[in-house]
Amino acid sequence: MSAAEGSEDGLPPLREVIAAHGLAAKKSLGQHFLLDLNLTRRIARAAGDIGSQDVIEIGPGPGGLTRALLMEGARRIIAVERDDRAAAALAEVQAAYPGKLELVQADALEVDEADHISGPARIVANLPYNISTALLLKWLSIEPWPAWLMSMTLMFQKEVAERIVAAPGSKAYGRLSVISQWRCEAFIAFDVGARAFTPPPKVVSSIVHMTPRAMTGDDPTLRSVERVTAAAFGQRRKMLRASLKQVFADPEGACASAGIAPTERAERLDVPAFLALARLLDAGAG
Ligand SMILES: C[S@@+](CC[C@H](N)C(=O)[O-])C[C@H]1O[C@@H](n2cnc3c(N)ncnc32)[C@H](O)[C@@H]1O
Which positions in this protein are listed as binding S-adenosyl-L-methionine (predicted)? Predict the structure, then answer.
């Protein structure tokens, strides 16, 4: 055990917690635990103001990141965990921090976070990779946007993190980039090597920090952004005049109205261009 895996909070070291509660990692639940307190505290610090706003943590597992968040001054954590085996380990954290940790035993894809928070909240999580993009798209779909959401500080596979922040013209640029960058300012805070996890995943991971942008009366509806990006990137090698046939009766006319060359391809269009097309759909040009 390294010094960083010690128990500065008076609770047992995480390796002991995992052994005592039989929390052997389950692949089906995307379990890759972080045991290094230096790292989990760094993630907690990247989240911003957690001392005056609620934190929603997805998948606390044995509680490493949860404990780091509490050590960094989290006011109140709502932790959503699907693995019932984690409850006993988390009960020890609840006892050490009375009133600060609420455990919601549920599938995070099904939970309505608004039912559990007491006001504005930040999402912080070392996400299960099998559902990480589904969870992100769920949060990016909060309506009205951004409602209670103050920020998201999330661990993804590096490849997914790169898709989130990708610029037009790059290979990683796609639907996830457009929807993420429309809704949020997003940046990769730092990378985390596979060896930081127990058991190690096959790939490098990255922490992405995302802050919601305010929507204005000029912003299109989410539904139209989803439709336009699905059509354009569903056939990303095709020119827009072909790929947009799925959503516009007159794709060339739509491109002209949006100030886009109909011979352009999806991967080269910037976010404002997609928003211009989505606004046309909202205006009934479909
Ligand atoms: C990558 S592990 C992170 C564990 C812990 N937070 C850490 O950093 O060591 C992902 C966690 O998400 C949980 N999980 C997986 N699928 C879930 C779901 N659908 N809803 C809620 N939690 C889920 C797993 O049981 C696991 O505890």
Answer: 32, 34, 59, 81, 107, 126
Q: How far is the CA of 130 from the centre of ligand 1 (A)?
A: 10
**What pLDDT is stored for residue 2 in this prediction?**
55
Q: How far is the CA of 184 from the centre of ligand 1 (A)?
A: 24
Q: What are the sequence ranges of the domains in the chain?
A: 3-212, 222-282
- Rounded to two decimals, the ipTM of the complex is 0.99
Torsion of CA 256, 259, 164, 159, to 10 degrees: 70
Residue range 3-212 in CATH 3.40.190.150: no
Q: To test the ligand 1 pocket, which listed residue (29, 123, 139) has its Cβ within 8 A of the most ligand atoms? A: 29
| Claim: this prediction has a pTM higher than 0.90 | yes
4, pLDDT greater than 90 = no
126 annotated as ligand-binding:
yes
Question: Rounded to an integer, what distance in angstroms lies between the CA atom of residue 53 and that of residue 150?
Answer: 9
Tell me how far the alpha carbon of residue 79 lies from the centroid of ligand 1, in angstroms.
10
Is 49 one of the annotated binding-site residues?
A: no
CA 49 to CA 47: how far, in whole Å? 7
74-124 pLDDT per residue, tens: 999 999 999 999 999 999 999 999 999 999 999 999 999 999 999 999 999
Whether the CB-CB separation of 189 and 46 falls below 8 Å is answered with yes
Residue 176 has pLDDT above 80, yes or no: yes
Distance 127 CA to ligand 1 centre (A): 6
Is 253 annotated for ligand binding? no
- Closest C-alpha among 65, 46, 49 to residue 188: 46
